[in-house]
Amino acid sequence: MPEITQTMLEDALAYGRAFTDQGRTAQYIPYLRHVDRDLLGVSVRTVDGRRFSAGDSKTPFTVQSIAKVVALALALRDRGEKYLFSGRVGLEPTGDPFNSIIRLETDRKPYNPFINAGAIAVVGAIKGRSGSEKFERLLRYFRRLCGSDAISLCGEAYLSERETGDKNRALAYHLKATRMLEGDVGETLDVYFRMCSLYVTAEDIAHLALVLSNRGVDPATGERLMEADHARIIRSLMLTCGLYDESGEFAVKVGYPSKSGVGGGIASALVDRMGIGVFGPALDARGNSVAGIAILEYLSKVMDVRMF
Ligand code: GLN
Description:
3-stranded antiparallel sheet; binds glutamine
């Protein structure tokens, strides 16, 4: 297996550049409409401590759905696998868009933790006496998983998200009506909107993916941040559901567990090897970074790391 090098990363970035004009930034969240679609960055952190970055790897962007990984990790810690997956959320891909409501009426339980309905149910399961306590706990955990204390809220994105979040409200109230969500819906939604609006960089999400690939231990500190089995569950779900209704195509093209967000980030966890973070805000029709996918595809080929 060829080892990752800085040149490889630069080449992957150059390859990805040809794709940024093939997508658009997310239009349904006003804040994201105005992000420069030509930004592009990639970052790699290996379990044996090597770090590589190229392009806009230190440029902050909103984490969006990649936050669902952290919410799931925390809810698993708080409640355990049995509670979460028997009663709150499923483990199956949907083939539907990430914000779809259609199956909630027929199946009640959201299909998986990475569609919006599933993530809202997961946020509802996080422990805390109030929304702000839940968010504070989530933020603290976020920072540890990303190995960065700098992670904080992008206020403008949060307001924008809240202003236009009616589909997410519909999902949450539907869950509440069918008794799949307990507690104050408004508070749960607020935690959801906030976690989506956290500012991260490609380096931060590479670190998050690194912890997942290193079976829950941060190799930089030696600290266990999540149970190995929880990291395994999350990697499995990233593979089957991480890119919504593009997960199957992505598994064929790229072939390792990844999670995307409409801010343009994708975090990829290559078990026992490395975490990769990419950032390119131009999205395809299904809400995934076009150039980000191209970079990951390039890297998976040159490193020969596809799982299948
Ligand atoms: N904040 C976004 C939403 O709820 C997250 C979706 C995403 O990244 N796919 O619609």
